Amino acid sequence: MTDSMDGPHDTTSGLVFGRSTGHEQVVFCQDRASGLRAIIAIYSSALGPALGGTRFHPYDTEEEAVADVLNLSRGMAYKNALAGLDHGGGKAVIIGDPTRDKSEVLLRAYGRFVQSLGGRYITACDVGTYVDDMDVVAKECDFVTGRSPENGGAGDSSVLTAYGVFQGMLASAEHRWGAPTLRGRRVGVAGVGKVGRHLVGHLVADGASVVITDVDERAVARVRHEHPEVDFVSDTDALIRIPDLDVYAPCALGGALNDDTVPVLTAAVVCGAANNQLAHPGIEKALAERGVLYAPDYLVNSGGVIQVADERRGFDFERAKRKASGIRATTARIFALADEEGVPPAVAADRLAERRMADVGRLRDIYLQS
Questions:
Q1: In the chain, which end has fewer C-beta atoms inside a 10 angstrom radius, N or C?
Q2: Any binding-site annotation on 195?
Q3: Locate the Glutamate/phenylalanine/leucine/valine/L-tryptophan dehydrogenase C-terminal domain: which residues (predicted)?
């Protein structure tokens, strides 16, 4: 990483630590005075400027941070493509404990690095960063979304993220059980922070029986105060083994679907807000072989990016919500395509996203005379 604010270390052609990743650009940023250590990854700009949030997390190693930002930025490219946005995929991570290391000067230093990319990357909130943080970043940067309404922004993007996941869940219920409702179904939500909390509200309103878990006792207490009828279990392992569970909604960090959890999962549907739920390639096939319907995470959790993308036009919540409502139809389309082609929904979603990136990206080759 760089030693000062003179400029980031720019790794182009997607070559990181000697391996090809397919990314257009990976930027390592460091400002020793503020303690900033960050990595910005741009997977694709085929559809437009890369859009994706900034995660603030205490990674154990730089290699762990790199792996996360590469996976997250790739997922954003596919998410933005399926959401019908004219944005490529990017993501950033700040290495550190947000409760201890976050400061105004660190966030402003980070904003300077984002600004140095000249608009190739547009940032927003993610795990460990909030609306107030984006307001601070914006003091040094023009390419920020997810700002507070008083500063012309869209505010908390978790509102439409949860709404979009719920739309995807309705499509999943219709595909699996023939009716677009969770009424009478048992839904387990793992992680009831920013997004999971709002999702629980939608589920309760729809008549679902909800059971939750979270490592943060305060988050659990808040949800149970708002919805006393919601049940609680101690951890995710207990949640996924509930005998009468119909839907499992991973809404915390990635890797929730892995070689240990898939074999013991009792739910018939998986649909949640967490990014990168599949721990490795092949998990989507294991789910299909067990008869579990998986709603691709980057499809159903795209409501948040739809919201922050709308901010670039002058935010209109109802307009953004209407677009996020389309997640239900897109999810149904993915399930139909998967059945038609005999592949898991995750594969069908990848193919549809790649097709749009290729088809629309090709238009850049058409010369426009100024």
A1: C
A2: yes
A3: 155-365
192 annotated ligand binder: yes
Angle, to 10 degrees, between the axis of helix 303-311 and the axis of helix 317-341?
140
Rg from Cα positions in the chain:
20
Determine if residue 48 is labeled as part of a ligand binding site: no
**What is the per-residue pLDDT across 270-329, written as a single tens digit (0 to 9) for each?**
999 998 899 999 999 999 999 999 999 999 999 999 999 999 989 999 999 999 999 999
Is the Cβ–Cβ distance between 195 and 165 less than 8 Å?
A: yes
Residues 227 and 272 in one domain: yes
- Token look-up 């948040």 returns 304
Q: Known binder of ligand: residue 75? A: no
Pairing of strands 88-95, 209-213: unpaired
The pLDDT, as a whole number, for residue 99 is 95
Q: Is 266 inside any structural domain?
A: yes
Task: List, for residues 33-71, the tens digit of each pLDDT value.
Answer: 999 999 999 999 999 999 999 999 999 999 999 999 999
**How many whole angstroms separate alpha carbon 69 and alpha carbon 89?**
11
Q: Which of 91, 102, 139, 323 is catalytic?
A: 91
pTM: 0.87
Pair 48, 164 in one domain:
no
User: Is 91 marked active-site?
Assistant: yes
Q: Which amino acid is at 341?
A: E
Domain boundary among 133, 151, 169: 151
Give one word for 14, left, alpha or beta, with left for phi > 0 and alpha for psi -120 to 50.
left
What CA–CA distance (Å, rounded) separates 271 from 189?
A: 10
Structural domain contains residue 81 = no
The answer on 335 and 275 residing in a single domain is yes
Provide the token pair at 32.
């020793």
Q: Find all residues with CB under 8 Å of 250, minimum gap 6, and list them.
A: 190, 191, 236, 256, 257, 270, 272, 273, 274, 277, 297
Residue 366 lies in a domain: no
Same-domain pairing of 274 and 306: yes
